[in-house]
Amino acid sequence: MSHDLSRLGWDDFFVSAYRPFDRSDACPGRVLRVDRGVCTVLAASGVTRASLAGNVLLAAAQDPVNLPGTGDWVALRRWPDRRITVEAVLPRRTALIRRTSDKDASGQLLAANMDSVAVVEPMHPAPDAPRVERLLALAWESGAKPVVVLTKSDTAADPEAVARQLAELAPGVPVVAVSVRAEPGVDQLRPYVVPGRTLALLGRSGAGKSTLVNALAGTAVMPVQAIRDADGKGRHTTAYRNLVPLPGGGAVVDTPGIRGVGLLDNASGLDRAFADIADLAALCRFGDCRHRAEPGCAVTAAVADGTLSPRRLDSWRKLQREVEVESARQSARLAGLAGHRRRRP
């Protein structure tokens, strides 16, 4: 069965990047999932499994983010003994990367080459504002366009009111309330998964990500488990990142439920997630204002007059400190690598 890769986002950008690898025993493909170093890849000829070539492993040794991940476009090579290897990861247009818990300040690729990132948050028992803010910073940093998706809107007495409240936490970001059981349904998300476009879903376990994938696909392609009524939490139904091509074209990436998301040195994503505070900070009297007790601080003035909530400012400060710490760790890590290279004979 032949597959039209353009419906998955194969365009002139990737065609140009693939050109150096174009040969009779090679072909392009998109990574659907990665399991213990083996990639499941969709090529024009169909789905295949591929191991990693030596140069790909070498690049990953320098930085784990260089490993092929879900959503990546790769160059495949077919060998005479029928082995298939990933010879190269093509440049990424966007990349959703979180910080790992390791001490080396490394990153973990969650998805690549998505056009939009949906921060998925359930309405039951209640949306978690700090989590939404943190995930939005991660989504903005990816280079894709964020959207907040409030699931299980049928559990809220006034879902539109909840959506309006969340919109205050997401400047410039669409906020949609959806339910697979009642109106409005998931049709509001279909513009994000038209042919050639990819939507990545990001949220905690039990948020309804796998249910959204199944609804968009029109069939059960991802396992779904019931949530607990008391706290709205569910078990981890997705243990791996998975790209699902949709029947009408486009694709959606389901990610495992995330209990915590560490930020790297993504200051630009944080500024966009907190655009309201960034705009206020630009009005402060001093350029190096810390927004504590400095005279002429527009941020603390907004808190005093009720324009900005203390909770949102506290959330911004917490994430700002985290980014500053990670930026310092990244600098130390890069300096250590540079020193190691200089010491090698």
Summarize the structure.
Monomer. Associates with 30S ribosomal subunit, binds 16S rRNA. With 345 residues, this protein is an alpha/beta fold. Helices cover 30% and strands 22% of the residues.
Describe the structure.
The protein is α/β, with parallel strands linked by helices. The protein folds into 3 domains: 5-91, Beta Barrel (OB fold (Dihydrolipoamide Acetyltransferase, E2P)); 96-254, P-loop containing nucleotide triphosphate hydrolases (Rossmann fold, 3-Layer(aba) Sandwich); 267-343, Probable gtpase engc, domain 3 (Ribonucleotide Reductase Protein R1, domain 1), CATH 1.10.40. The chain is 30% helix and 22% strand. The protein has a 6-stranded mixed beta sheet, with helices on both faces. A 5-stranded mixed beta barrel has the order 1-2-3-5-4. Strand 4 and strand 5 form a beta hairpin. Helix 6 (267-273) crosses helix 7. The radius of gyration is 22 Å and the shape is globular. The termini are far apart. The model is unreliable at 227-232 (pLDDT under 50). GO terms for molecular function: GTP binding; GTPase activity; metal ion binding; rRNA binding. Monomer. Associates with 30S ribosomal subunit, binds 16S rRNA. Keywords: Cytoplasm, GTP-binding, Hydrolase, Metal-binding, Nucleotide-binding, Ribosome biogenesis, RNA-binding, rRNA-binding, Zinc. Its cofactor is Zn(2+). One of its GO terms (cellular component) is cytoplasm.
List keywords for this structure.
3 domains, six-stranded mixed β-sheet, hydrolase, RsgA_GTPase_dom, Ribonucleotide Reductase Protein R1, domain 1, 13 strands, P-loop_NTPase, metal ion binding, nucleotide-binding, 345 residues
